[in-house]
Structures are given as structure tokens and as C-alpha cells.
Amino acid sequence: MEAASYIILIGSSLLIASILTSYLALRVGTPLLLIFLAVGLLAGEDGIGGIRFNDADSAFLIGSMALAVILFESGFDTKLSSYRAAAWPAMSLATVGVAITTGIVGAASHYLLDLPWVESLLVGAAVSSTDAAAVFFLLRAGGITLRDRVRSTLEIESGSNDPMAIMLTIILVEAAVHGWGTPWDVALEFVRAIGGGGILGLAGGWLLVAFINGAKLEAGLNPVVTLAFALFLFAGTNIIGGSGYLAVYIAGLYAGNVKLRGALELRRFHSGLTWLSQIVMFVMLGLLATPREFDRILLPGLGVAAVLILVARPLAVWLCLLPFRFSANESTFMAWVGLRGAVSLLLALVPVLGDLPGGQVIFNTAFLVVITSLLVQGWTIGPMARWLGLIVPPRRGPVDRVELELPGEADQELVAYRVHAQSPAARGQRLPRWARPSLVIREGRVVPLHKAKPLQPGDHVYVFAAPGRLVLIDKLFGGSRPLDQNDREFYGDLVLNPDATVGQIAEMYGLPLSLANAQRTLRDLLQMEFGGACELGDRVRMGGVELIVRDIEDGEIQSIGLALEPTPVAKPRVALFSRPKELWGRLRGWWGSRSFRRWQRRQQERKRRPDGAAGSD
């Protein structure tokens, strides 16, 4: 009894310490996952806590359960609409990108760590996948507003690349223990893992939704059902040879994108549970590590991390995104957001559990890589996005909105707003019938609706509305803000009607005109250019100006911006991430430049000098 109390006391103390330090970390911009890992290290046997924890089996079990919970919530909170523009590039990164990263990091590990090839490739496989927990947190909770296509690609990749990394790790461990199988066996195992995980994930998500909607249990039981079902699906899929990680992610994705009873409460529950899972997983892995053993591999381990961050990830991203329409700056950012986390540490435990000779070296190397990734990449995501010009300026001021779900099958939501001082409603704009409040609270008192007009800043209004109209109501009660210089660079200097024709705009501004496009509207021109999948900030060059998608709702372009000069947003910061055609143009331009001719003359003069000596003949 006393021992159990001590264990509970220590565990709760570590949770409290993680929460308190995370509060301080948010103020200085420290990646929270790094804080959780540091708490575990400090509490471990080499830290001030002196807690001895070396049970790799228990760590793998607890970490796998926590990761399943995180992946279910990741899918549950991802909109299916984001797959329309980002599915193929994300899948390319999640498969081909993982394989490329494994090969490059494996080769570096072979020479830097002096490991056999199989164990070196295990290092590459362990750190080949980006971490869903780290990416989702830093992109969603880090205050970074990116273009939808970039954010969705990173989130989908991080949520779906684990099966590939897990398969590579299992195949390599089997090869180290029992020798290599035939290529057919390897391909069959991979297809079974991906196919089984995908099919069972869809079936499991459908069953979960059907049960919750049909059983109509007490609201407090629904979170218990989703948690138990997610863990059951994860374990069952693994047992029959499929990828449990992929299955639980797809089940969450399905359940989060259909009508589900109590969906709002489920999102809140799983959000809190995900925080708990992240803290438990990172603190536990910090406890498992032995920092005194890092001295032996510190420099080689940092070398492996440098190869991953500066070579393997950028090259994999560049090659995988070549067929897709991403700018050089977007590719640069996605190459930088290759965060490694708990998945890498869990996969690095597999060689330890398999009793491989270099298992501990693999785990320690992966630990150093994860720490380096969180320190270098996790701390600089915001500055990197701003430097590359990828931050999307908000079109509206703050919106203070709370959604309250109605019981039963009602296709309405009760939404509470706090009226912003700069909102159209506070400035006396007449509200449409479908946006008029049902209740107004002013200075803590309920005000009759006929006496509440006009609405005043600070009023709390309650509106019954269809979910599809919430974006429109946000515009009425949320704040407005003037465009600044950064906004004009992103959205353009002027606003154009998307129904205006290309010929009209060309004549008005003296722009070159293609007769084939003369009668097209600006909306049609942009949709043709981007295959009908336009998003905010997409731009097309038209002579010396740029046409920019300025406002879009439900996939339909509402307004178009005109930038009178090409903006810095479109200029690549890192030339190596340009498309091959652009790189070839840069090289040709350099070959014809004065700098190249001066370089040629210097080389010719050097050859004429005896022994390449400096000075004149």
C-alpha cells in the first residue's frame, strides 16, 4: 500500500512539474515537448531526481498506447477537406520521403557510428518519420497561421508516415536477427500493413460512429467508448498484421468528419487526453534515457542529426514535391519542419527489445537526434515561417466565439459571441434575420431583444445558427482590422471583381493579353491555373503584376487582389529548393553574367602562372 502511494505521488509530481514548467515555457517560446523530455531527464537516475527506470518493455507498451491516443485525436481533429489539395504530396512524403531519409541517414550512421549496415539503417528508419504530436502542437498551438496547403501537407504527412517507418524498422530488425527475406516477402508485408490498417481503420471508424449515434448512451460514456474503441482497434489491427497506427488515425479521421453525437464534448475530452498522453510519453522516455552514456556518441550523434536536418530531410522534400505546385519558400519550410519526437524514440526501442548488439547505441543516437531536432527546428519554426514570408495575415480581428452543442439530431448550434468594438454589429450594421441573437447579456444582465438595439461592444449575444453560416456570423460580430504593409504584400494593393474578364483588366492596366484568355473571368483563369483547387494567397503572374486570391469561401473565389509589383512573398529565399526549370534558368543567367566571365578570366590566368602561383608573369 505504501509503495503504491509513493509511485502515485512520484507520478503526479512529475505531471505537475511538467504542467508548471510548460506554463513558463510558453512565455519564452520553448517547445513544450522538449520541456516534458527535460523533466524526465532531470528526474531520472542521472538527474536530480535519481529515479531508476530501465524497463524498456513497459516503456514501449505505455508509449504505444499514448501514441495511439494521440493519432486518434490527430485524425479526429483533421478536416477531410484538407486532403483535397494535400493528400498526394503528403503521401509522397510519408512513403518515398521516409525511404529516402532512411537511406541517407543510414549511410551517415554507418560511417559516423561505425555500425554494421543493418543497424545503421535502423538508425535511419527510427528517425525517418516526423512526429505527429510535435507537428500538430507547433502548427496549431504555436500561433502560426500558414496557407492551408502547406499546413495540411505537414499534418497529413506526420499523421500517416509512421506505418512506413514502423515497417522499415521491423523488416530491418528481422534482417538483423534472421537474415534478409525475399523482396516478395517484404512487399507482401508492406501491403498487408498499409492495406490492413486502411481498411480496418475505415471499418472501425464507421462502427464507432454507428454505435455512438445509435446507442444514444449517457453523454459521459461517449468519451469512454471512443477511447476503448481506439485502443481495441489499434491492438487488434496489429495482431492480424496490419498497421494499428494507421488504422487508429483513419478511424479518428472518419469519425471527426461525419455527424457524431456529442462531437464537441468528444473533441474537448480527446484534446485533454492527448495532452496527458504527450506528457506521460515524453517524461517516461526521458526517465528511460541514461545521459552519462551519451558522451561516447555525442559528436557522431550530433553529426547524424546534422545530416538529417540539413541533407536528408531537405533532399527528400525537394524530390517528393517536384511534381506538385509548391513554391521554393514552401518547400524550404516543409523541409525545416521535419520534427522528430516520441515515434523516433519508440522505434529506437525495438532494436533494444530485439537484443541487437548495437541496440543501446541506436536508442542513444535517436535520443540525441530528437533533442537536437526539438532544439533547433522546434524553436525556430515561427521565425522561419516569417523569414520565408509564409505567415498568412489575418483578414479579420479577433473573434470571441463559444460553440454549444444541442442535444439530439438538431442541425443547429447555439453560439455565444462577445461583440468586438470594431465589428460591423457594434457599428450599427443591420443584421440578417438568420444572424439575429436569441439572447443578449449586457453588463451581467439579460436585456430584452427589443431594447438591445443597437448592440454595444462587450455584449454577449447567443445565436442559433446552422454550422455552415458560422463563418459569415464571425464577420458580423468579430473585429475588423486595416490592412498594413505585410497584408498588402500578401493580398495585393487593389481589389478586383473575380467576374471581370482578363481582357478588361489587361486594357485597364496596359498588360499583355493572350487572346485565348481574353474572355475568361479572373476567377476562371485562377481556377484553371491551379486545377480548380485554389486557396488563399495563390498568385498568377500577368505581365508586370500579380493576380492573388484574396478571399475565398466554400472553395469559391470571392475577391482577387492585384499586386502592382511582384512581391517579396514570391521570391525564393533558398535557391536550392527552386524547381529544376528555375534552377536551370539561374545557372544559365549566371553563366552569362559578368561574375562568371571574371571567374573564367581568373581561372585562365591561374593556369598560365607557373605552379598556380599568385602574381603576374
What would you say this structure looks like, in words?
This protein is α+β, with helices and mostly antiparallel strands and 617 residues long. 58% of the residues lie in helices and 8% in strands. A hairpin with a 2-residue loop joins strand 8 and strand 9. The termini are far apart. The radius of gyration is 28 Å and the shape is globular. The strands form two sheets. It has a five-stranded antiparallel sheet with strand order 1-2-5-3-4. The protein has four domains: 312 residues, Na+/H+ antiporter like fold; 78 residues, Alpha-Beta Plaits (2-Layer Sandwich), CATH 3.30.70.1450; 86 residues, Uridine Diphospho-n-acetylenolpyruvylglucosamine Reductase, domain 3; 34 residues, no CATH class. The longest helix is centred in the N-terminal third of the chain and has 33 residues.
List the helices and strands and how they pair.
Blueprint: H1 2-28, H2 32-43, H3 56-76, H4 83-112, H5 117-126, H6 132-140, H7 148-160, H8 162-178, H9 183-215, H10 222-239, H11 244-255, H12 263-288, H13 298-320, H14 328-336, H15 342-353, H16 359-378, H17 381-387, E1 400-405, E2 413-418, E3 439-442, E4 445-447, E5 460-465, H18 470-477, H19 485-491, E6 494-496, H20 502-509, H21 522-529, E7 539-542, E8 545-553, E9 556-563, H22 580-591, H23 594-608
Antiparallel strand pairs: 1-2, 2-5, 3-4, 3-5, 6-9, 7-8, 8-9
Helix pairs in contact: 1-2, 2-12, 3-10, 3-11, 3-12, 3-15, 4-5, 4-7, 4-8, 4-13, 5-8, 5-15, 5-16, 6-7, 8-9, 8-15, 9-10, 9-11, 10-11, 10-12, 13-14, 13-16, 15-16
